[in-house]
Amino acid sequence: MSEDPDYSRGFGGAALAARLRRASERLDRDGARVYAAHGVRFEQRWYGVMRQLVEHGRPMAVGEIAAILHITHVSVSETSRSMEKAGIVASVAAVEDGRRRLLDLTDEGRTLAARLTPLWNAFNGAARELDAEAGELTRLLDRLDDALDERSMFDRIMARTETDQEPD
């Protein structure tokens, strides 16, 4: 009996979003398995926020982190709330303006970051290896980002639906 065909692959470029989601889920799932295998409670979605706090070595605003990572403020807020519940980050008042809230690593977060550094180095090495094996996919992703910056998927779809619609 033959294997089931890969539904998404059969659509080629038309399944771009589905294929990217699938690849992301596979990578995140394997990352979670690595953390679990090393007895570490860490969610892959925390990485970007934690990495910024580690690299900058200072409290940072949610908006600042979102801008650096090119993701939404809402996404960083949701992630940071989860990290706060886990005791990894704390929300602190900005020195210059007490009404402004900043994220900072807790002592537990700093300890965790130090423990994770060798794992992150292994993640990075494996990612570079996979990228090379896949034909430098990151270069193609750069091109995809540039193409989306030039003209969003929304605009591309709307242009197609507007020309396909009949007048009222």
Please give a structural write-up:
By secondary structure, the chain is mainly alpha-helical. It folds into 2 domains: 14-135, Arc Repressor Mutant, subunit A; 136-168, no CATH class. Helix content is 63%, strand content 6%. It has 7 helices and 2 strands, in the order ααααββααα. The protein has helices at 16-37, 47-56, 62-69, 73-85, 107-133, 137-150, 153-164; strands at 89-93, 101-105. The protein has a two-stranded antiparallel ribbon. Strand 1 (89-93) and strand 2 form a beta hairpin. The longest helix is centred in the last third of the chain and has 27 residues, at 107-133.
Total of helices = 7
Strand neighbour order, sheet with most strands: 1-2
Give the overall shape, derived from the CA principal axes.
globular
Reported by name, the CATH topology of the largest domain is Arc Repressor Mutant, subunit A
What structural category arises from helix and sheet content? mainly alpha
The biggest beta sheet is recorded as: 2 strands, antiparallel
Q: Would you state the CATH class of the largest domain?
A: Mainly Alpha
Please identify which CATH superfamily of the largest domain we are dealing with.
Winged helix-like DNA-binding domain superfamily/Winged helix DNA-binding domain
β-strand percent reads 5-15%
**What's the mean pLDDT score?**
91
What is the second-level CATH architecture of the largest domain? Orthogonal Bundle
Question: How much helix is in the residues?
Answer: 55-70%
Uncertain runs are none
Distance between the termini: 52 Å
The radius of gyration computed from the alpha-carbon positions, rounded to a whole number of angstroms, is 20 Å
Give the number of domains: 2
Give a count of the beta strands, DSSP E runs of length 2 or more: 2
String of helices and strands: HHHHEEHHH
Protein name: MarR family transcriptional regulator
Organism: Caulobacter hibisci
Domain HTH marR-type: 13-146
InterPro entries: HTH_MarR-typ, MarR/SlyA-like, WH-like_DNA-bd_sf, WH_DNA-bd_sf
